[in-house]
Automatic annotation (TrEMBL):
GO cellular component: plasma membrane
Organism, scientific name: Centaurea solstitialis (yellow star-thistle)
Keyword terms: Amino-acid transport, Cell membrane, Membrane, Transmembrane, Transmembrane helix, Transport
Lineage: Eukaryota, Viridiplantae, Streptophyta, Embryophyta, Tracheophyta
Bilayer topology term: Multi-pass membrane protein
Protein name: Amino acid transporter transmembrane domain-containing protein
Residue intervals passing through the bilayer: 61-80, 106-129, 150-167, 173-192, 260-282, 302-324, 345-365, 371-392, 404-428
Length: 438
């Protein structure tokens, strides 16, 4: 990757072609974002549809949920700090930071596959979520209509992205992102307030759903993965920060951090009430999407499902943007294609079509969350920032910074190991009853 040294009044040693490419690529093309863009981009990236699965992950999950909120806020702070730690250079992409820490080749091999699994994984899961919420909306509004298969709803949801994916960069999707952030707060509020109105269910049980010890352990592992999935914003944080202007006097980390703090407060307002109240009202009988457990009042639940659709549209775009950036960088810099509308049109539509197709094939929501959650979210969110921090800043052994980072690493590695196991088992259990393209 060519270093971007045009900020901080330094000499720009890029050729005219390199400069033109950087101005064309989604991440580096616009650098005039305001701090509140970072707030709603982060809310949209964080408060995934994962929030609706949180009541399902409760029980021992409460402690993990709170702990995760603290750990991920800390690792997010580290990433915001590291964005411009080398004077005159900005790490606009997660893998550029990885390359600085681990070396050109190794940095790419460590970061890119994980980041791609997260971003593409989120996009696939959101295809399914968008389709399911549209279907739920249709079924609620039109009870006597003919049953329409989930496959068609996923296609309808995807059709929006065949249009939106052509917005060039992060700043151009800020309107979509703002709408999505507002929606996430709205449907979270609907989810917990409708649960309160419904009251604690008769013969509610708070024990484990599974009857066997093994079942219980696996369900807990899967719940950990779902919680990890709920904090996935780190994969796009440097890319979001890259859109904020920066000078030596006013580095981008100031406005970015302000946006992150606002976002994290909103995240807490979305996550904690939904998770705790939803679990309190339904116990272990809650569905892996709380809005499915709530049936009445019909208009309100229908509206909430529509909000989820709008929100997931925004989230899909935020996670797709770094993927588009990677694909376009590869095509233009390595394979020397000419930056053009046609190139963008073909690559982006192909990507949307691919995520749609996979979503149609594997719509088991909860298990996928657990599997991807542990496999890739835990590293990029919980401990990779700590490892990079330790390797670059080298804090003294047993100093506070050293201890905190190691605690986060141990916690993250544990999550990474156990949650895919739970998720995979959940997928196998769900797959037994599922028919392809039914």
């Amino acid at each position: 990757m060519d270093s971007d040294e045009k900020s901080n009044g330094q000499v720009d040693n890029r050729t005219a072609r390199e400069r033109a490419i950087d101005e064309w690529l989604p991440i580096t093309s616009s650098r005039n974002a305001k701090w509140w863009y970072s707030a709603f981009h982060n809310v949209t990236a964080m408060v995934g549809a994962g929030v609706l699965g949180l009541p399902y992950a409760m029980g021992p999950g409460v402690a993990v949920l709170v702990l995760s909120w603290i750990v991920t806020l800390y690792t997010l702070w580290q990433m915001v700090e590291m964005h411009e730690m080398v004077p005159g250079k900005r790490f606009d992409r997660y893998h550029e930071l990885g390359q600085h820490a681990f070396g050109e080749k190794l940095g790419l091999y460590i970061v890119v596959p994980q980041q791609l699994i997260v971003e593409v994984g989120v996009n696939i899961v959101y295809m399914v979520t968008g389709g399911k919420s549209l279907k739920k909306f249709h079924d609620l509004v039109c009870e006597n209509c003919k049953e329409i298969k989930l496959t068609y709803f996923i296609m309808i949801f995807a059709s929006v992205h065949f249009v939106l994916s052509h917005l060039p960069n992060f700043n151009s999707i800020s309107g979509v992102s703002l709408a999505a952030a507002v929606m996430s707060l709205s449907y979270s509020t609907i989810a917990w307030s409708a649960s309160v109105k419904k009251g604690v269910q008769p013969d509610v049980q708070y024990g484990y759903k599974a009857k066997s010890v093994t079942g219980t352990v696996f369900s807990f592992f899967n719940a950990l993965g779902e919680i990890a999935f709920a904090y996935a914003g780190h994969n796009v944080v440097l890319e979001i920060q890259a859109t904020i202007p920066s000078t030596p006097e006013k580095p981008s980390k100031g406005p970015m951090w302000k946006g992150v703090v606002v976002a994290y407060i909103v995240v807490a307002l979305c996550y904690f009430p939904v998770a705790l109240i939803g679990y309190w009202m339904y116990g272990n009988a809650v569905s892996d999407n709380i809005l499915i457990s709530l049936e009445k009042p019909t208009w309100l639940i229908a509206m909430a499902n529509l909000f989820v659709v709008v929100h997931v549209i925004g989230s899909y775009q935020i996670y797709a943007m770094p993927v588009f950036d990677m694909i376009e960088t590869l095509l233009v810099k390595k394979l020397r294609f000419t930056p053009s509308f046609t190139l963008r049109f073909i690559t982006r539509n192909t990507y949307v079509a691919l995520t749609m197709f996979i979503g149609i094939c594997f719509p088991f929501f909860g298990g996928l969350l657990g599997f991807f959650g542990g496999f890739a979210f835990a590293p990029t969110t919980y401990f990779l920032p700590c490892i990079i921090w330790l390797s670059i800043y080298k804090p003294k052994k047993w100093s506070l910074s050293w201890i905190i980072n190691w605690i986060c690493i141990v916690f993250g590695v544990a999550l990474m190991i156990v949650s895919p196991i739970g998720g995979l088992r959940q997928i196998i259990v769900d797959a037994k009853t599922y028919e392809f393209f039914n």
